[in-house]
Amino acid sequence: MKQLSLLLSLITLFSCTRSESELSKVSKHFTAYQRNEKRQLFEDIQESLQGKRILLLGETGHGDGSAFELKSEIVDYLNKHDNWEILALEGGSLFSLYLADNNLPIHKKIGVPTLEQSWFYIWSNSNEVSQLKEIAKNQSMNILGIEPIFDFYSAAYFYPFIIKNVEISPDYKKRLKALRKIQTQLFKSTKNKSLVSIDELIDFEKGINNLKDSVITWDIAHQAMILQQISNIESNLPKYKNYILNQYTFENESIAIEKRDAQMFSNLEWILEQYPNKKIIIWGANFHITKDISEFEYNKPEDKNWYQRAQLFGMYVNQKYGNESFSLGLIKGEGTSGTVFRSQVDTFSANETSLEYELLKNKSMYYGLLNTSTLSLPYKNMEIESSVLGTKKGKLFKGFDGILFQRNMKAATNQQKNRQ
Question: What digits encode the pLDDT tens for the residues 355-389?
């Protein structure tokens, strides 16, 4: 019995040593950059993008201010040095940012939407995206949105814009104002409390269908944009129906996530059609931009097979634009994280069994970059633990075309108040 225990211990020790050795080998494929070598890092990212039209630029979570800052600098560099002309934002309102990009006021009192009004506040209220705000102010890029989820401004701007720009009857104006009121209430609803009844939702859906049928017949400017925004509104309705009927299960939640990602891809397709032959950067989370979520484990008890079934935004992009697209996932070493609406921050340190822990051993590496196309198949098939999707194991190098490592992370700071 003792001999068997000793044998098992030796096997375990050998497995751990082999795993560490494999991670050490993987880490040596990363190009290391000191903190003052960002220019070289950006040049190497640019080199990786030769022949590409779409860059999907990720982040581990929505509270890493240092990632926001680095991503903003990458966007600025690629715009100035490699003619990347469009930035499309997760959390960015397709309709509001289209108005801003085309300098279209809603009406005299409201004027043209701003980036802050058109992008979810977890990003727009962060001090670390100040460089993006300068880009928006200078109009050096087309900044657009791919987000279909309701926000306050999608209701506040959409219906007044139609009323202002289309000759419609007083009665039709009243109907549009009623739709706006219901959509605002839907936006304020949560899975715990719906502010709209099922009958009101049914009437709203009928009103949206009627509006779509009418817009198709109108000979108006920006017709394509209005129809695409109607499509975004429609994509939200099953989720709100689940709220009202108290049917917000994990299955329904996962369906809503996938429906959102499918609609984000629809919005990307619309942007590519409206802005042909322009290179586009997608700002989003690693979760949404991965080429294949099925290469990772979903380690929560609700449904461990979800990742094997899920179809997400980056997968749609890869399936249609694989050779023209590049998915760059960001990973973190250590530090703090916290979204701008939270007063407290979380501390993060890499697990000893993770890729990041191995990368941290290289003291000359503040940033690290790996183009996964340079790896042989055995490396691509390796199961690696990393922070790319929240400290999960998976075939990291099949899920992304590139991995960008940043040693230190720092929580996002609110531009409206200092974090305590």
Answer: 999 999 999 999 999 999 999 989 999 999 999 99
Between residues 418 and 334, which one has the greater pLDDT?
334
DSSP 127: G
Distance, CA of 67 to CA of 60 (rounded, Å): 8
pLDDT computed for residue 15 by the predictor: 46
Q: Which of 327, 350, 340, 348 is nearest to 403 (CA)?
A: 327
pTM for the model stands at 0.92
pLDDT at residue 1 is higher than 80: no
Going by C-alpha positions, the residue among 60, 185, 68, 188 that lies closest to residue 122 is: 68
- With 0-12 CB in 10 A as exposed, 13-18 as middle and 19+ as buried, what is 179? buried
Check residue 295 and report its DSSP letter: G
Summarised one tens digit per residue, pLDDT across range 5-41 is 544 444 444 444 444 578 899 999 999 999 999 999 9
d(CA 353, CA 88): 35
Q: Are 72 and 123 in contact (CB under 8 A)?
A: no
Cα 245 from Cα 207, distance rounded (Å): 21
User: C-alpha angle with apex 241: 240 to 246, nearest 5 degrees?
Assistant: 95
What is the model's pLDDT at position 404? 98
In terms of residues, how long is the chain?
420
Q: Is the dihedral of CA 397, 399, 402, 403 positive or negative?
A: negative
Please, which pLDDT band fits residue 397 given cuts at 50, 70 and 90?
A: very high
Angle at 243 (CA atoms; ends 125, 205), nearest 5 degrees: 95
Task: Say which amino acid occupies 147.
Answer: E
At 171 the three-state DSSP class reads helix
CA atoms of 412 and 402, how far apart (whole Å): 24
Is-contact 78 55, C-beta < 8 A? yes
19: left (phi over 0), alpha (psi -120 to 50) or beta: alpha
